[in-house]
Design brief:
204 residues, alpha/beta, 5-stranded parallel beta sheet, 11% strand
Length: 204
């Protein structure tokens, strides 16, 4: 049985596509949009809100501007969505081998002592700008760069808020791959090769 694989990724690095190809190559379930669908079904929140709040936040976000006293009686939608996603991620992991993209899945599995291979996909800015242009059809390089920086900042803030760790730190991952230098196909091959040789938790 292959291990669970989590994919953390910089915006525009191709992490979703790489994760999807890995899952196909290993013939195991792939969870990204499916998590949104399940959380929407179980929580009652719309898919749009879950997609907006499911990985992104800001320290000044209105959901977090509540007093300590109020926090005793009020759980923000952001927190409810995080807890719902955590529940779904753990349920997916408990079923066995799979690929899970983002949403603090690396931290969530570690906190429950569930063995997994944790991968970070990153790339330099020119490659990310090119990928975002190809996917979303944006033309102005300046606007694309700002969008990438904003997305990364939101993910970094979200990850820090819920894990008290720094998103992107190499210590949180077993494998960090530069998709700009290596290319998607080679990243997929490296992850699959590791999974095939790491079919169970290594002994201490």
């Amino acid at each position: 049985m292959y291990p669970i694989i989590t994919i953390s990724r910089e915006f525009g690095s191709g992490g979703h596509s790489i994760g999807e190809q890995v899952a196909k190559e290993l013939d195991i379930p792939f969870y990204d949009g499916e998590i949104v669908n399940r959380v929407a079904s179980e929580s009652g929140y719309t898919k749009e809100l879950i997609e907006e709040q499911g990985e992104h936040t800001n320290a000044s976000d209105k959901w977090f501007n509540i007093s300590t006293a109020s926090a005793m009686y009020f759980q923000s939608p952001q927190d409810e969505i995080f807890l719902a996603q955590r529940k779904v991620i753990l349920e997916c992991a408990q079923k066995g081998s799979c690929v899970i993209v983002g949403r603090c899945s690396d931290y969530i599995l570690k906190s429950e002592n569930i063995f997994a291979i944790h991968v970070l996909i990153h790339a330099d800015m020119p490659h990310r700008i090119q990928r975002v242009r190809e996917r979303y059809g944006e033309i102005e390089e300046v606007s694309v760069k700002k969008r990438i920086q904003k997305k990364d900042k939101q993910r970094r803030t979200y990850y820090r808020y819920y894990t008290d760790q720094h998103w992107g730190d190499y210590e949180n991952y077993d494998l960090a791959l530069d998709s700009g230098t290596l290319g998607e196909k080679h990243c997929v091959n490296l992850i699959c090769e590791l999974a095939k040789h790491w079919t169970q938790q290594p002994e201490d």
